[in-house]
Prior knowledge:
The chain is an alpha/beta fold. The protein is built from 13 helices and 5 strands. It has helices at residues 4-11, 15-29, 42-54, 59-65, 70-86, 88-91, 97-111, 171-176, 179-186, 222-248, 263-279, 284-300, 315-335, and strands spanning 116-126, 145-152, 158-166, 197-199, 210-211. Helix 4 crosses helix 5 and helix 7 packs across helix 10 (222-248). 44% of the residues are buried.
Amino acid sequence: MSTASEFQSHFRVTVTSFQWLLNRIAPLLESTRAAGHQTTDPKRQLLAFLWLLATPNSFRSVGSRFDLGKSTLSAIFMRVVTALNEISPEIIFWPNIEQRQRIALSFQASAGIEGIVGAIDGTYIPIKAPSANPDVYINRKCFHAITLQVICDNKMSILDCFAGYPSKVSDIRIFRNSPIYEEFMNHPNNYFDEKQFIIGDKAYPVLQWCIPPYIERRNVTTRQKHFNTCHAKSRQIVERCFALLFGRFRRLKYLDMNRTDFIAPTIIAACVLHNICLNNQENQEIRDMFIDEGLQAVMNNAGNVNHEAANYDNVNAQELGREGHALRDGIAENLYPF
């Protein structure tokens, strides 16, 4: 590519991000050479992979562009996905105490709610109908998909992600079966300081460390409605995070993959790349363009939202629920300007 901006436009990452990633995973892409066969250069492997993820182009056409056979390109795709999943703990991780304080201050500055360290949501990743049990992947919008759950910070960096459940499963069930939920329940002090929490939509339970909006029934108060307005403004960041993910890596708008077991690792690999891109400075106009390109996919693929408050699954959750309700009520009271 003749310019850095053209490179980013085609491959959806900056030259800086590409070079950093190539240096990091090149050793993981150098497979054992078969007799009489040369291993594809790691740089060409990564470029071909990024083109695949950035476009809906067929493997055949991308293989032709990079002078790679279809079977070779398929092997490269799986190799890079595996490498990105291997380094994911270095790239996607929960913020430390100082980082959480900075995140909370930024959220508070944007909408007034004190204590937010992340926003959680789920989105559908459309897929080809699997050969085994295809019906369980059909969601309420009548297409086959796998759900991606993400917690992001105020800058759209992904703090945790979880993928693999069929999209027929509700967001709350996926949340309760995710590793991060178990961590939050068993070791909350490792993830939150006092009065710190994540926010989610009404699909999520009220807990000491998870605050959804009030359910707007007839008896909802003006103070609660005001809280919900501020809450929604804060929560928009996770929708922008999804929009950036879909807009940057357009193959996520429809993953036409035969191996269902490799879909979730592919989604996680895209999340790893997402954070790498955010960690390296990139053209803000191009990033905004990616977000604009992904907004329609976010609306089309919104996750499975319950219409009533989630029930508590054990006694500990009930106690955390009482603490969460008290925390939310206190925030709502302090937020209300009159």
